[in-house]
Amino acid sequence: MSDPLHTRFCELAGVRHPIVQTGMGWVSGARLTAATSEAGGLGILAAVTMTFDQMRDAVHEVKERTANPFGVNVRPDQPGLAERLRFVVDAGVRVVSFAGAPSKDVVSRLHDAGALAIPTVGAARHAEKMLDFGVDAVIAQGSEGGGHTGSVPTSLLLPQVCDAVAAEIPVLGAGGFHDGRGLVAALAYGADGIAMGTRFLLTQESRVPERIKDRYLDATVFDTVVTTALDGAPQRVIRTELVAALEASSIVTRLPRAVRNALELRKVTHTSMPDLVREGLAMRKSQDLSWSQLAMAANAPMLVKAALVDGDPTIGVLPTGQVTGVIAELPTVAQLVDRIITDARATLARLHG
Fold first, then answer.
1. Are residues 32 and 178 in the same domain?
2. What is the pTM of this model?
3. Alpha helices, DSSP H only, in the chain?
4. Mean pLDDT of 56-73
């Protein structure tokens, strides 16, 4: 009898378990990514918030820590994308995931180099478009998910996306997953695995400061909010005094701060002013942003960095999935992956018996 937990995605990505650790900006560094892949899942390095040199060093570090496949997450409209992709595929990275929709040309170039393209989608029609572009799999994230998220819950979105494209490519469910029962539920919907962010953020290998992890562990399922006050797009974060203040303020009062943080982000990421302008114009065109929204979009990563890297939630924000409200401890990545697979097998046995 075939193993129900060895899915098409396992075959596609070359991993033992159908579990993906998503590319969380400022969080998914080399240690967390390598630990996930070494445990049998697919770790994804968050390169969107890295300079090219930082990304290069992180890829080399992951390869030193594990011989198993891993991925790198990029944004389709970030400056220097072609150079980044050339390095990634030359380094033998198996998967490139996208924070946004990649172009058909980018997907073709990855295929020519022997790499896989996996975007995240929030609607069945988006999955169908990505299938037309030739992507190898999609991650369908429901509204429970952290960071930028849609309005359709996973329990409705995932079966819709599976009905639309799972006959052709693997689908991974994201948003609300944290244990083996969830993995079995995703398989029942027609998916080939699950992708998790917050659950991996709350592990021992995550580089998020311990006091910030404690803030996540203390949160309940009622302590998150979806807000547009950060960059104009819906994002799920932990409700804090700063978030409440941002929501209560007008764009006029938020804008000067956003511009200052956008310029500070340029320094942190070593982005030249011409590249910053080009990036802004590309984001404005692809996402139909106003100039004020554009400034807020550039501001948001610095707000996240202030909390998740610098450890100060009073001046930063805490992106999170609603699942933070049911997580109470910090296992190692290996313990987490093993527990999910063990629980999934126990759940399948219970259903069978």
1. yes
2. 0.90
3. 8-13, 30-38, 52-65, 81-90, 104-112, 124-133, 154-165, 180-189, 198-201, 210-218, 241-248, 251-268, 273-287, 291-308, 333-352
4. 98
Cross-strand bridge partners of residue 71: 44, 95
Verify that 61 and 131 share a domain, yes or no: yes
Claim to verify: residue 24 and residue 144 sit in the same structural domain: yes
Domain that holds residue 286: 220-319
249 lies in the same domain as 291: yes
Q: 117-128 pLDDT, tens per residue?
A: 999 999 999 999
Q: Above 90 in pLDDT, residue 269? A: no
Are 157 and 127 within one domain? yes
Structural domains counted in the chain: 2
CA torsion sign for 289, 290, 295, 300 is negative
Can you tell me the distance from the alpha carbon of 146 to that of 174, in angstroms, rounded to the nearest whole number? 10
**Distances in Å between the alpha carbon of 230 and those of 24, 225, 252, 341?**
17, 12, 13, 36
How many Å apart are CA 96 and CA 108, to the nearest integer?
12
Q: Using one digit for the tens of pLDDT, what is the confidence trace for 208-217? A: 999 999 999 9
